[in-house]
Amino acid sequence: MRELTEAFVHVFNKQCLAEPGITMYGGGIIVNPEFSYGTYGWTVFGQGEIEQRVSRTNNRFMVASDRKHPLDSFSQKVLLEKGKFYMFSAWIQVSEGSETVLAVFGTGDGEFVPGGSVVAEHGCWSLVKGGIAANSSGLVDVLFESKNTSKEIWVDNVALQPFSKKQWRFHQDQSIEKVRRSKVRLHVTYPYSGAGVGRATVLIRQTKPGFAFGGGMNSHILKSTDYQNWFASRFRFAAFTNEMKWYSTEKKQGQENYTIADAMVKFAQDNKISIRGHNIFWDDPKYQSDWVKTLSPEELREAAERRINSVVSRYAGDVIAWDVVNENLHFSFLEDNLGKNASSIYFAKAYKLDPSARMFVNEFNTIEFGGDVKVSPGNLKKRLEEMLSYPGNEDIPAGIGVQGHFGPGQPNLAYMRSSLDILAKTGAPIWLTEVSVEPGLNQAQYLEEVLREAYSHPAVEGIIIFAGPAPAGFYATALTDMNFNNTPAGDVVDKLIKEWKPEDLKAHTDEGGFFGTSLLHGEYEITVINPITNSSSTSRFEVTKDSSDKIFHLQME
Fold first, then answer.
1. Active-site option among 434, 448, 449, 453
2. pTM above 0.90, yes or no
3. Among the options 145, 250, 327, 449, which is catalytic?
4. Using one digit for the tens of pLDDT, what is the confidence trace for 325-343?
């Protein structure tokens, strides 16, 4: 079971090593993965030359040279089986400078499916991780791509390991047990003697979950009691889909209106729902108000300063996080007009105005699709590190938001897992911030697969789904029909809410006053009933990832 265990270890080696790291899974189904036998098992793909080279330390690796086309490299044919996930890894170097290199799967019908990318450098080896979900059975070419054909691609220690969906789910469940639960012991004693209260009745109820699972909320909630009841009965976390955005609160220059956002904040607070602030700025030019687009750079700077001061000051202490500059890898409206450090400056400004909240970057396609190199996990990781390295930003509590807008087809969970592994190396908590799955025959199944994959990853601390009741306008990922009856996707969400929230527990201490159990992380209320007097004592405690084998001491009053 070694290869199965490896697949579930969420690790990502530091970027550049003098020697390539280990070959994962022993190479899996790849023939000659370490190039110990020259070019055996590998052929030229496209034009150019391939050869085995040997380093000064006697390490053997493969080189693609004299390339004329981005896909010119070397390849190996492998047989994929429909319905399986394939984890891919390889160590990459280029002949000079640095360059983005992709792992690609050629299907033979002219389609090339990206399976992961890395910014490779000369002089050290970088790990590319990713994978593919096999939607059909057949032969594919495993190869490499780099747009700069003047540079050689060097590769070593290639691996491709298949996993059935049953194996994948088994590992998810293993990880969930490990990262979402802790074994704890309770010791109930009398206040003066310190003696244990044997055979005491123990009632345990979770009052707040340790994992944040919530939904997108929109202004329909202010007009619909059904929507209010539906949301409040399910979620303790929310993000407003549009109502806090600049184009919603200042449609005309100088005329701010927070009436709707204020009312939604009040509803959330009245129902003990925590709010993610979404968003302060959006870097996409398309989503700027018309009046913003007409401003000169200096006028924009003044308007942006008013905007951030207004919205962050207004909701400081009311939100747990801010998406500071939304989608600032895909787009650069602020940077183009205000300078390359605009996002970093507003990161600092937002934190100064609301130091109780965590500051997030937030992007799409980082976990959904391996072909959008601009927002690859490595590039998003680099973007956050650049923002935090800006003078004065080093100690800002930062987070990584990956939106999670998936298409109607099978989600590439192998790529998703590898991407989360890479982002986890920042040490910043990861949230899936806008999860949706486009309508399709297997929408509910695919939604469940995505949510389980996120929940099972140790670096993910929260999920917000941009899905909800059809009467509120959630048509893409509708969780109810127009009469608030669950859709299949709604059944999935309700099932997971129930699964991820522990049932109330009733048990008894042993003769020494001890009781042990495994609890999901979160805040708990515990009531202990004296077996002799029938008197009770209630207290609260919190179970976290650091609570394993911890003894909670409780005294009878």
1. 434
2. yes
3. 327
4. 999 999 999 999 999 999 9
